[in-house]
Amino acid sequence: MSNIVVLCGGLSREREVSLRSGSAVADALQAAGHNVKVLDTDCSDDELKQYDVVFPVLHGVGGEDGKTQTRLESLTIPFVGSDSKSSHLCMDKSLYRAALQDRGLLMPRGATMDFKTYTASELSKHLHVVKPIDGGSSVDTYIVRDMDTYNSSIPKQYFDTYGTMIVEELIVGTEVTVGVLGHEALPIIEIIPPDDQEFDYENKYNGKTQELIPALHVSEDDQKAVQDLAIEIHDATGCRDFSRTDFIISEDGKYYLLETNTIPGMTSQSLFPKMAAAVGMDMSALCDNLVKMALTRS
Asked: Are residues 183 and 265 in the same domain?
């Protein structure tokens, strides 16, 4: 039995998801027999130092970008998940794209742009995706699937907010996500949004998206291939304990890497706990396992 603080909330636009994840993790750890305290990020360093291990369940800026991890490292407190360097790399989509493409990983064509560059770019003339450099949960992500109805005033509002954004070609195919726990890949989940809709923030949490496990439209060879890629990416980016990587399997059978999450959602509706459950690991066992990984580094 350990004394654990679950750190959640924060100030990012994903605060509400983080609070739900934190509550689910705290309940799971209590069920596993641990003493658990839930704290928001405005807690003091002295409060954090009272515990054996910190379990950060933070999403977005300030929590998943390495800042919280840097704080915990400076306090020499064991914590669950990736270190500050890996967290920063995976959160900054510009850095992430450069690092993974340098390793030969296939990603959609794309670049970091301001609005002026975007409107003049070749990418904006074809089906494409516009997304924040350091966001998650598909917040403020704009997908253009039909150029006939495309209106540049929609992405402009996002550029006005963020200044620069990632612009990528849209890859049409089957979206899948793969969790890595320790150094083992979990079963993949095939994601099918509601008809004529996207796997956006709303559809991630309203229960309308089909999350198929086992995947019904992905061959066993393709499943094994993306699992192997997820482990390779987990290691290449320096992730530890757990991660979740998203792919599109294109209509011509190529595996396009999208992004890696170093703190996957941990709500009752989240994908990572569903993957763990598929191999017989309930939420309590999953969270307990992650705490044990962190304590081995203490």
From this structure: yes
